[in-house]
TrEMBL record:
<dbReference type="InterPro" id="IPR013126">
    <property type="entry name" value="Hsp_70_fam"/>
</dbReference>
<dbReference type="InterPro" id="IPR018181">
    <property type="entry name" value="Heat_shock_70_CS"/>
</dbReference>
<comment type="similarity">
    <text>Belongs to the heat shock protein 70 family.</text>
</comment>
<dbReference type="GO" id="GO:0009408">
    <property type="term" value="P:response to heat"/>
</dbReference>
<protein>
    <recommendedName>
        <fullName>Heat shock 70 kDa protein 8</fullName>
    </recommendedName>
</protein>
<dbReference type="GO" id="GO:0005524">
    <property type="term" value="F:ATP binding"/>
</dbReference>
<dbReference type="GO" id="GO:0140662">
    <property type="term" value="F:ATP-dependent protein folding chaperone"/>
</dbReference>
<dbReference type="Pfam" id="PF00012">
    <property type="entry name" value="HSP70"/>
</dbReference>
<keyword id="KW-0547">Nucleotide-binding</keyword>
<dbReference type="InterPro" id="IPR043129">
    <property type="entry name" value="ATPase_NBD"/>
</dbReference>
<dbReference type="InterPro" id="IPR029047">
    <property type="entry name" value="HSP70_peptide-bd_sf"/>
</dbReference>
<keyword id="KW-0067">ATP-binding</keyword>
Length: 524
């Protein structure tokens, strides 16, 4: 099936089956752009449907292959690129780990072993990213790469549903800063898409859980009591945890926690374990090194997968100019080299339980989603922390987030369902504390993390100098006590302060966090 052609706007510009929606029935599509895979879903009038590409895939690789002609992604090509072609230097992937980050970020530095060019000057600017095309490095940006496969996803939906697509609900990790969120919105704009709503990934999963509990209540009179679920979502790039309380189709997020840690960290740990001098070996980015790195990456990934069902496996890797790597790899070794990853996951679960003010005994269901949630060590750790023996069975671990985004897209678009399947509401929570800079470099939280959205908080402030007539208020989000450890959101001036000695006058303002991506401050 031919795909409709689109042009990706530059970063500086402003910008199937015989199914058909009328103009009055156009739900926003749900998009889940993962670190390693992406997917798109839509409410089709009776249920959520995940769309398939020409290769009949619902989960598509998140990469862009560059050539001397136009670049293409892993979504629409009729014939798939093989693994070694993707790892040849021509493809750029894992950009969800790079978007919105500067070249001083440790996550960027850990990405330098990817089989394409990631260079840094360590001065706080955007890293240089490039693909190898005919022996020449072709520069790109994370936003451009994201936009290319967003264009392909958009075209795929429009061909199958025979209508224009503009509005989307996009899932994002809990740990994404506001700047990272804006870069995702920028990529959508470059692809001609409007982000109707950004949705933390576990919040999207919570909406699917709420719908299922509502349907169970309708089929079982008297089962409408509140149910509490812990949602653990770990993919290739990020780990998110949420505690949600659900009753009657209403899902209230009690607590959120998240970190930039995922399957790629596990893979990197394995690669560095096999080749301790990995950074120096790959620093030249020569053709032979790129090829060897591709072989090592594939072999390490296969070994990790094998250890999910076996206690040991064999490695046999062509390292190019180096001696061939042949060795065994055991589950004990795997768990030892990834102990810090597992401990971080454990701390996120404990933090979420603590912030929700709930005990493990209060958790009715444990929902495990994301590919890494199926790793035996992680799976048993989460279940043990919640004192459960088995996870919730009703949600597909790889399709949950995009399905929740599609549900939210239908609800946000005003779509109704005669059977009540869209009578849903998500009460979200703030993923970060919102506050200001005080006393030089200190951070003063105003709206605390995990506050229910919309949140409102009044603040009283006074002058620091005699006859001060205006004040500069610098706003941050984060949990660090010093502003350098938090994300700068912006600043504004408060003027018209009457002349007086310092500390005598008091002024009040109200801070309001209206939804996931919008807050404001109003004088009172």
């Amino acid at each position: 099936m031919s795909q409709q052609a689109y042009t990706v706007a530059s970063d500086s510009e402003t910008t199937g089956d015989d199914r058909h929606f009328s103009a009055a029935f156009e739900p926003a599509i749900g998009l889940d752009i993962g670190t390693s895979r992406c997917s798109v879903a839509v409410w089709d009038g009776a249920r959520v449907e995940l769309l398939r590409n020409p290769r009949n895939q619902k989960m598509m690789r998140s990469y862009v292959m560059f050539s001397h002609e136009s670049p293409s992604g892993g979504v629409s090509d009729e014939f798939a690129h093989d693994e070694q072609e993707i790892l040849s230097g021509r493809a750029v992937f894992n950009v969800k780990r790079l978007v919105g980050r500067t070249d001083t970020d440790p996550v960027v530095h850990s990405s330098k072993t990817l089989p394409f060019l990631v260079q840094t000057m360590d001065i706080g600017v955007r890293p240089f990213i490039a693909a190898l095309v005919n022996g020449v490095w072709r520069s790109t940006t994370p936003e451009e790469v994201l936009a290319i496969f967003l264009v392909e996803l958009r075209a795929m939906v429009e061909v199958q549903f025979k209508r224009d697509v503009r509005n989307v609900v996009l899932t994002v990790p809990v740990s994404f800063s506001r700047f990272q969120q804006t870069r995702m919105e920028r990529a959508c704009a470059m692809a001609g898409l409007h982000v109707l709503r950004l949705m933390p990934e576990p919040t999207a999963v919570a909406l699917i859980y709420a719908q299922q509990q509502q349907q169970a209540m309708q089929g079982n009179v008297g089962s409408g009591s509140e149910k509490v679920a812990l949602i653990f979502n770990m993919g290739a790039g990020y780990c998110d945890v949420a505690v949600t309380a659900t009753a009657g189709g209403v899902s209230q997020i009690k607590a959120l926690s998240g970190a930039t840690i995922g399957g790629d960290d596990i893979l990197q740990n394995a690669m560095r374990y096999f080749v301790p001098d990995l950074d120096s070996f790959y620093s030249g980015h020569g053709i032979d090194e790129i090829k060897a790195m591709g072989f090592l990456r594939v072999a390490s990934q296969n070994a990790i997968h094998a250890l999910s069902s076996h206690t040991s496996t064999m490695m046999d890797v062509d390292m190019g100019k180096r001696p061939r790597l042949t060795r065994s790899f055991t589950r004990d070794e795997f768990e030892a080299i990834n102990r810090e990853v597992f401990e971080k996951c454990e701390s996120l679960v404990k933090q979420c339980l603590h912030d929700s003010k709930l005990l493990p005994e209060d958790i009715n269901d444990v929902v495990l989603v994301g590919g890494c949630s199926q790793i035996p060590t992680i799976r048993s750790m989460v279940l043990n922390l919640c004192k459960h023996t088995s996870p919730y069975k009703g949600i597909h671990p790889l399709e949950a987030a995009v399905s929740g985004a599609a549900l939210e897209g239908a609800v946000a678009s005003g779509i109704t369902d005669p059977f009540g399947n869209l009578d849903l509401l998500t009460i979200q929570a703030t993923p970060f504390s919102l506050g200001i800079q005080v006393d030089g470099t200190n951070f003063e939280p105003i709206v605390q993390r995990n506050a229910t959205i919309p949140a409102r908080k009044e603040m009283i402030f006074t002058t620091m100098h005699d006859n001060q007539t205006q004040a500069l208020v610098i706003v941050y989000e984060g949990e660090a006590k010093q502003v350098e450890g938090n994300h700068l959101l912006g600043f504004f001036k408060v003027g018209g302060i009457p002349l007086a000695q310092k500390g005598l006058l008091e002024s009040a303002c109200a801070w309001m966090w209206m939804h996931q991506t919008y807050c404001e401050c109003l004088p009172e």
